[in-house]
Amino acid sequence: MHIIIQINVLNIMNLQEYRKQALRELLHDGFATSQKCLVEELKKKGYVATQSSVSRDLKDIGAFKTIDGYTLGIEQQKDSSPIQNITDLIIDLHTAGPNLLVIKTRIGAAQQVALFLDECGYPGIVGNIGGDDTVFTATSNKINQRSLIDSIKFLIKRS
Description:
This protein is an alpha+beta fold. It is 48% helix and 19% strand. The chain is built from six helices and six strands; from the N terminus they run αααββαββαββα. Strand 3 and strand 4 (100-105) form a beta hairpin.
């Protein structure tokens, strides 16, 4: 005798989306020191959560690990603009040759800054690599490098 178990995939997907929304709310409220803490908080709210499911969900919602724990990516922050969030994270800018810009950030913020630069559509950016506190930005030429530096400095002054 075979037992057939039918899983309603739509219900599982809805549960995952509800869990992700709850995770966003926890991050927004500051309950983000570790994945273990997030698992415990989600369980208190009645969600089925494991470290691996929380890890996947954090990646899916664009969260980043910082020195203080996890935070939402810039596109998820609702109380300020993406440019404001980025300018608050940048500490210093340096050139390295005619096509490379080195952007020093707060600890744990480089990937967030790199992602913003990847998605902003700024002409002349060839690519970005974000580490922990440093972003390497390649530009197509020295003119685009200088223009990007001027734009970032302008935004920092304005904020």
